[in-house]
Amino acid sequence: MSQQKDLHMMALSHIVDAVQITRSNNIMQGIKFQLRLPEDVRAWLEADAERNDRSMNGQVVAILRERMKRQTEEAAERKPAAAN
Predict the structure, then answer these.
(1) Is residue 20 located within the same domain as residue 46?
(2) What is the tally of structural domains in the chain?
(3) Which of 49, 51, 53, 82 has the greatest number of beta carbons closer than 10 A?
(4) What distance in Å separates the CA atoms of residue 26 and residue 83, rounded to the nearest whole number?
(5) How far apart are CA 46 and CA 44, in angstroms?
(6) Rounded to an integer, what distance in angstroms lies between the CA atom of residue 13 and that of residue 30?
(7) Is residue 62 domain-shared with residue 80, that is, in the same domain?
(8) Together in a domain, 26 and 46
């Protein structure tokens, strides 16, 4: 009986560890965000992601990061002109 209880406690410990790892991974990966896309946009995104060897989520993040970078660069270019 004691051996069976030990096995149950070990199994429970592994489950708790798995839940904690999952929570950590979710926190590190960011927030979950649902997005509705028109079918043609989804098809384009899926093809674009495949061409870039990414998941669709990875492709959306890459597109947004590129846009963020461009926007920051454009803002930096406008600042010196605004100072004159």
Answers:
(1) no
(2) 2
(3) 49
(4) 43
(5) 5
(6) 26
(7) yes
(8) no
- The predicted-structure confidence for 26-60, as pLDDT tens digits, reads as follows 555 678 888 899 999 999 999 999 999 999 999 99
DSSP string, 30-71: ---------HHHHHHHHHHHHHTT--HHHHHHHHHHHHHHHH
Length of the chain: 84
Rounded to whole angstroms, what are the CA distances from 54 to 34, 37, 41, 48?
18, 18, 16, 9
3-state secondary structure of 25: helix
* Closest C-alpha to 60, from 83, 37, 26: 37
Q: What is the per-residue pLDDT across 9-24, written as a single tens digit (0 to 9) for each?
A: 666 666 766 666 565 5
Distance CA 8, CA 2 (A): 10
